[in-house]
Amino acid sequence: MRDTRLAAERAGVLDDEAARRSIDRSDMAGAIEGLPGQLRLAADRSGDLPVPDRAVDVREVIVLGMGGSAIGADLVAGAFADRLRVGLTVRRDPMLPAHVGRNTLVIASSFSGQTEETLTATQAALERGAPVVAITTGGRLADLSRERGFPLISFEASGQPRAAIGHGAGLVLGLLGRAGLLAEVEVAEELRLAAAAVDRGLSAWGPTVASAQNGVKGLAQLLHDRLAVVVANDHLAPVARRWKTQFNENAKVWAAWDELPEAAHNTVMGFGSPFWTGERVFVVALAGDGEPGRTVQRREAVLELLDSERTPFEVITLAAGSRLAQAFAGVVLGDLLSLYLALLRRVDPTPVDAIARLKARLS
Ligand code: F6R
Predict the structure, then answer these.
(1) What is the pLDDT of residues 299-346, one digit of tens each?
(2) Does the pTM of the predicted model rise above 0.85?
(3) Are 13 and 346 in contact, with CB atoms under 8 Å apart?
(4) Position 10 confidence tier, pLDDT thresholds 50, 70, 90
(5) How far is the CA of 8 from the centre of ligand 1 (A)?
(6) For 331, what's the count of Cα atoms within 13 Å in the CB-facing half-sphere?
(7) How far is 202 from 195, CA to CA, in rounded Å?
(8) 104-110 vs 132-136, strand pairing mode
(9) Of 219, 223, 263, 315, which one has the fewest beta carbons inside 10 Å?
(10) At a CB cut-off of 8 Å and minimum separation 6, what does 172 contact?
(11) Looking at residue 272, what is its pLDDT?
(12) Positions marked catalytic
């Protein structure tokens, strides 16, 4: 009875527009709704993105970026792992690995253009003679591209870097296409399909869809006050990572992500730990429609173990379509979920003061 009343009270915050706006003061809801537009813009630009002249014998691609400026490239690496002609690594560190050199296409990705780790690694890449291209809204990275004469892909966006994931992923994908590194991929079409998948997600689970019809609002109620652990495999593993970071930055909560099949080789040993069972953890497993049978079997076996330890979980199957469209359906679902968790916790999803303080302290 008490639980039902609590759930109804919480649903009020999620469904009452005035209450929502009083918490979501900088309009993260609007930023999430902007995602399909970003993907369509990247699709329109994909035919004429600048590629460095020296990117002729590219043997690997490294994307340098942190946080919201790195995750888009992870999504691309995951979705096109089966069609990329060379390896793509996303590097979140100022140190550049020894193998980066003249045959490495280096993509420096920073929303602000001011991120220290990305700038340091970009300087190192220039010193190694690697072909470099920048993706940014401006800042020091844009200045560096003018000073050192490497191509700049700039985009306009206000708000938070993490809300620009459509620009990040779309421009990286466009660049890979222009550099001839994708086999049989219609880049613009891929991006439009992904945008359509996000549109469908927004219509089904968006802020104006009432709790009674909105499974994502329901999931937010289940996750509220618990540690969310998001588990996925293959091209959905970066989506699990995105969920984790959106829970951190939007809802201001701890969260974790893990990857299958690796989790079957270690994480499962923690399932019986008495402190973390039952009440405190909620596992969400992301699945793709049309997965190979072996993948499904593996996940089911792991979830059976979880069940035997009485830890609650839910499997979310992302609708069929291209790998990128599936991944973006997962992204918008997680972004909305993190927004609803923030509303339930009554915290403004947009500001990330601790990150800004850390950046100021370390600059
Ligand atoms: C904040 C966010 C952060 C930033 C990160 C790097 O919304 O998403 O994770 O992306 O601090 O900063 P930028 O993206 O400016 O290089």
Answers:
(1) 999 999 999 999 999 999 998 789 999 999 999 999 999 999 999 999
(2) yes
(3) yes
(4) confident
(5) 35
(6) 34
(7) 11
(8) parallel
(9) 315
(10) 63, 72, 73, 76, 107, 109, 135
(11) 87
(12) 249, 265, 359
Contacts of 121 (CB under 8 A, 6+ apart): 64, 91, 93, 94, 95, 96, 108
CA–CA gap between residue 330 and residue 343 (Å, rounded): 20
User: Measuring from each residue's beta carbon to the nearest atom of ligand 1, which residues come in under 6 Å?
Assistant: 66-69, 110-112, 115, 118, 160-162, 249, 352, 355
Distance between the two ends of the chain, CA-based, in angstroms? 53
Residue 1 has pLDDT above 50, yes or no: no
- Letter for the amino acid at 251? A
Please spell the DSSP secondary structure of 141-188, one letter per residue.
HHHHHHHHT--EEE----S-GGGGHHHHHHHHHHHHHHTT-BSS--HH
For atom 16 of ligand 1, the residue with the nearest CA is 110
Mutate to test the pocket of ligand 1, among 28, 69, 331 (most ligand atoms within 8 A of CB): 69
Q: Which residue minimizes the CA distance to atom 9 of ligand 1?
A: 67
3-state helix, strand, coil in the chain (%, to 5): 55, 15, 30
Please report, as a single letter, which amino acid is at residue 339: L
pLDDT 10s digits, 269-308: 999 887 666 779 999 999 999 899 999 999 999 999 999 9
Establish how many alpha carbons lie within 13 A of residue 230's alpha carbon, considering only the half-sphere containing its beta carbon: 28
Which atom of ligand 1 is nearest to 160's Cα?
7
Task: Find the helix packing angle between 35-45 and 165-178, rounded to 10°.
Answer: 20
Decide if 139 contacts 93 (C-beta within 8 A).
no
Q: Are 326 and 318 in contact (CB under 8 A)?
A: yes
Query: Ligand 1 centre from 24 Cα, in Å?
Result: 19
- What does each C-alpha distance from 32 to 63, 160, 166, 215, 287 come to in angstroms? 24, 11, 10, 17, 22
